[in-house]
Amino acid sequence: MSYSKEDKARANRIVQQAIDKAIADGREIGLQVAAYHRGELVIDAWGGLADEATGRRVDGDTLFNVFSVTKAVAATAIHVLADRGLLDYDQPVTRYWPEYGRRGKEKTTVRHVLTHRACVPQMPTDVTTERMCDWDWMTNAIANLEPLAEPGTKTLYLSMTFGWILGEIVRRVDPKHRSLGRYVAEEIAAPLHIDDLWIGLPKGLEGRVAKLTDAMTPIPAEYLPPLFLASMPAPTALVPAIFERPDVRRAEVAGVGGIFTARSEARFWALLANGGELDGARLLSRERAAMLNTPRERSDEPDPVMFNIPLPISVGGFWLGGDYPPVGSARSPRALCHPGQGGSIGWADPDQNLAVAICHNKMFNASSLAEDPILPIANAVREALGLA
Question: What fold does the segment set 5-78+185-384 form as a domain?
Answer without folding.
Answer: Beta-lactamase (3.40.710)
